[in-house]
Every structure is written in C-alpha cells, then in structure tokens.
Amino acid sequence: MDIDTSALFAPIAIKGRIVKNRLSVAPMTRISATQDGRATETMTRYYERFARGGFGTVITEGIYTDQAFSQGYVHQPGMTDEAQANAWKPVVSGVKAHGALAIAQLLHAGALSQGNRFRDSTVGPSPVQPKGEQMTFYHGKDRYVLPAAMTEAQIVDAIDGIAESAERAIEVAGFDAIEIHGANGYLLDQFLTDYTNKRADRWGGDTESRLRLILETFKAVRARVGAKAPVGVRISQGKVNDYYHKWADAERDAEIIFGSLAEAGADFIHVTEFEAWKPAFTPGGPSLMNLAKRYAPKAAIFANGSLHNVEQAVAALDDGADIVTIGRWALANPDLPRRLSDRGILNDFDPTILGPIANIKETELVM
Which residues are catalytic? Predict the structure, then answer.
C-alpha cells in the first residue's frame, strides 16, 4: 500500500468537539436489540470494537423515535423512553472510552416500516405505495404496504418524537451528537422526494416546501439539545428501495437542500450515494459530496457510499468530504484505522455476515 493516508488521520473540530481522525463507522441496521427496543450487551461489544480499532467517529444504526409509527424493523433499538435511553449507556461508554465521538442516528421509517410493535399500518406524506419489496434480511416479506397520508397532528407528533429522543440521547444515554436521518427513503426523505410527496398543503409542492419537514425537525432537535451538541442531517438521492433516484432539478435542488441546511445551522451533513465519488447528475459533473461542501461550506461533510478502498477514501477528502463513513469495509476490518496506520493487511468483506438475517453474529465480536 503506497498511498499516502496521512490525510485520513488529521484531526478535525465539529462544533468544538475534536475528532481524532477522518474515519467514521457508517450507520448500519443490525436488528440486535431486545424485542422492546433496548440496546443489548452484544451491541455494546459490537460498537466498542470499532472505537477500540481506532475510528474517530461511530454513528449508530437508525434508532426509532416514538411509540407510534417510527419503528421500521423488528429488534430495532429505540430512544422513546427512559428504559431504552438507559440501555444505550453502556454502548456509549464503550465508544467514548476509546476517544471516539458517539453519534446517535434518529430515524422515522414512515412508509418503509416493515416491523412495528406499536402499529399494524404505516404512514407517509401521501398514499403512495413504496417501490420494491421489503428486505428479507430484516425479516421483511412481500411488497411494502400502502401508507396513509399523515395528518397535521401526526406530523407534529413525529417531529416531537425525534426531538424528544434527541434530548434523551444526549442527556440520558450520553451521546456526543445527533444525526437526523433525512435520507434513504425513510420518512423525512419521503417528504423531500417528489414522487412520494403529493401533498397540496405546506408540507408538499416545490423543493423548498418538501424540505420543510427536515428543517422543522432540525430546528426542534436543536431547541431540545441546546447549542453545544453537534446536530447533523443525513441526505441522499437514492433510497433503500430505489438506489438510483435523482433529484428532478439536479444541482438547483442540491443548492436549495444544502444551502437551507447550512442556513438552519447544521453542524454536519452526511451525504450518502450508492457510489459517492461519481457525478451526482451529469457525466463529468461534481459529486454530491462536492456540492454539499460548495453550498454548505461551514458544515462538516460526511461522505458515504462504496468508499471501501484506500484510494477512494483519500480521494473523497479532496472532493468535499471532511470525514469518510465506512460500512462494509468496517465490518470486514473493525480495526481499520489501526491497520491503515500500521500498513497492515486488510480483510475483504464477507457478505454472509449479513445473512440470512442481518443481526450481529458472535463471530464478528472476535478481533
């Protein structure tokens, strides 16, 4: 390995928090909580090994945020009450013990919910059936069900649930920062996406209006956690059920979305694409991470999407990214930063880790 990796090990400050390097564990759904949504000892060991392995930042899997429609998967962890928040304490302690920044990702599944112990139905911005089929490795089967259009009261409840969960994550569980999941086809992204949001009220219409739910959620979270805790938003074009979706107004949409997040005061923006280094819209054009940095220059840009080799990870830092978030590569090498620093041999990703069900396997916890 002859590539200069020193840029990956430069520290960076996010809202006054010093992050020791540019390598982060990406959020990955692993459905290993208890049936009632409490984090487990297995999860503590799983997350702690990434921090012990040298990652500067660890972002959790998506955590559901209310006891209504937010839960997306069976055995998904939650942050909806004190019991769930307290169960995260050992996880957070394990991550922070090794000097890593612990970020809680908060998720409302909306129309993509395929396992919710609180409700038998789903909601979304409009009664539009999601594309594709549920994910079998998360206990899914058949098509996604047709969601009901959310009422104004349900929208307010969803915002409040995310904000209250953010406060619990910081004040009770001890997380350092919050990531609001506004990507990948889940609820906030459903409102942003033109073909899933057919509303005629203030939550639908042009890009600025469809973005409103993300911005209102961000403001509510900021009000709950105060000025000190970093708060960011994850943004994508593609979805778990529609990998190659593109924003209709291309770079103009990017300017509106990233510029609005910057104006709202987002401390970081986590951009995820199927292949992050590729042009976002037209051949030869800029990547989405490059556009994020262009239109939100003061925010730290996290970049995710098949950046699982050294060349691509380093190149991302020259293309707008401040931090590279790693998924499959981290599963294969939970001590990836140490291996890169020591010029060690890197393992290839074994996809059987995520099958037949994508829960945490005991074999993963041996380093």
Answer: 186
